[in-house]
C-alpha cells in the first residue's frame, strides 16, 4: 500500500444483493472524482483486497466505510466489528444495513424453516440426501468451518456503532453523490459534517411530498394487488386502492415507483419521528378504509371491516418489507408467520 | 399466595366511556382480576398500533383496547377507526405468532362497569392459560438472537 495522503475509502457487502455497489457506480463520471479524492482501501466488489489486508491496517485507518448488507451470519458480524475498528466514519449504506431490508423478511420465519426452504423444498433444487450446511464438517484433511447462520437478521447499528445512515434499496445515485460531496468537502475544505447518527442522502418528510400524483379524498373500499387493477395515471395510487407505502416512507428518491404506476414499496424507511414504519402504515391505511359507519349494527360492522381488511395479502410482509429489523417486535414468535 | 402466573394486561381505556366504566366498577366495588394496568386515552381511535407493539415488546402479556360502542363515540367515529386498525393489526399479529386472545378490543359504555370487569376477568384467564409472553427475553433472547423462539416452534 503506497501512502499518497489521500483519504481512504472502503465499501463492504454483508448480507446484500450487490445493488448498492451498482448504485455507487451509477454516479457515472463522478466516480472519477471519487477515485481522484479517495484511495480505495477495501472494496471486494471492484478491487482485490483480502480480509488480512484490513486486519493489518492500524485502527481508524479507513476514513470512510460504506457498509451495505444486513447482519445475517457470524461472518457479517465479524466484518462489521473489524471495519468499525478500522474506520473513522462508519456509514450504514442502503436499506439492509440501515434497517434489515429484504434479508430481514426471514425474521417472519425461523432459521430452520429458511434452511429447509432453500436447501430442501425449493423446486429447482436436487438434494436427495437432504444435506444442509453445517458449521463444522470433518473431511480427511481436517475440519471445515462455515459461519454461524443467525436466527434473527439484524441491522448494522444493532451490532456496531454507526455514524450515518443512507437509506434506500438501493440509495439513489444523485443522493449518494450529494453525500459524497459533503464528505469530500469536509475532507478537502474543512466543511462541517452532519451530526453523528443522522440519516443522510434523503429527505425528512413523507414521500407524498415529492410525488406528483393528484391527491383528492381517501375513500378506499378495498385494496387491489398490482395485477388486479390498471391504475389511473394521474390520481394518487392509494386512493385507488393500490397499497402505496408513500405515506409512511421517507422522501428522497423522487417518488420513482409511484411515477411509473407502482405503489411505493417503502425502501427509504420511516420519515423523521416514526419508530415503526409498518405499524404507522397499518394505522394510516386502516383509518382511510371507508367501509361501515357508526349507524350500523356492531356485528355487521365488524364483518364488513374484516372483509375489506382481508383484501390485503400478507400485511406483515407488505408493511415491514424493508424495516423488519428496525421494527418494535423485530421478529415473529414461532415462525408460523410467513405462510 | 400461590405462585400461579399473573398476566400483565395493559389497558387503553377511552376517557368518555371505558375509563368511566372502570371507575364505576371501582365505586360499585365490583371484584375483578387486578391484572389490568389502565391507561386513559382520549379516544380508542387515539391508540396507535405502535402503542400496542411497545406494550408487548416491553413486558405486557396482553393488551386491551376499550372504547365506546359504535355510534356512541364522543368524536363521532373514532372508535370505528379503532376497529379498522384493530382488525388489520390482529391479522398482522397473527403473522407474528401472537395469539388473538392477547390483544382484544372491547366496547364498554360509562354505565357498563360489570361488562368491563367481566372482560378483564375473562381475558386474564385466557392469557393465563396461554402463559407469559415475555417478548424481550423469550423471543428476542440474547442479543436478539431468538434462541427460545426456535425451541418453541
From the structure above, extract its key features.
heterodimer; A: 339 residues; Rossmann fold; 3 domains; two-stranded antiparallel ribbon; B: 153 residues; alpha/beta; four-stranded parallel sheet; 6 helices; 15% strand; globular; disordered C terminus
Sum this structure up briefly.
Chain A has 339 residues and is of the alpha/beta class. Helix content of chain A is 29%, strand content 13%.
The whole-angstrom Rg of chain A is 23 Å
- Average pLDDT reading of chain B: 91
Strand content of chain A: 5-15%
What's the N-to-C terminus distance of chain B? 33 Å
The CATH homology group name of the largest domain in chain A: NADH:ubiquinone oxidoreductase-like, 20kDa subunit
**Low-pLDDT segments of chain B:** 146-153
Any idea how many domains of chain A?
Answer: 3
How would you portray this structure in words?
The complex is a heterodimer of chains A (339) and B (153). Chain A is an alpha/beta fold and 339 residues long. Chain A has 11 helices and 9 strands. Chain A has helices at 19-25, 30-37, 51-56, 74-86, 95-99, 111-121, 173-189, 256-259, 277-287, 298-309, 315-319; strands at residues 8-13, 39-42, 62-68, 71-73, 87-93, 136-139, 142-145, 149-154, 164-166. In chain A, the strands form 3 sheets. Chain A has a 5-stranded parallel beta sheet. In chain A, strand 6 and strand 7 (142-145) form a beta hairpin. The model of chain A has no long low-confidence stretch (mean pLDDT 92). Chain B has one domain (9-152): 3-Layer(aba) Sandwich (Rossmann fold), CATH 3.40.50. Helix content of chain B is 44%, strand content 15%. Chain B contains 6 helices and 4 strands; from the N terminus they run βαβαβαβααα. In chain B, strands 2-1-3-4 form a 4-stranded parallel beta sheet, sandwiched between helices. Chain B is globular and about 45 Å long. At the A-B interface, helix 6, strand 8, helix 9, helix 10 and helix 11 of A face helix 2, helix 3, helix 5 and helix 6 of B.
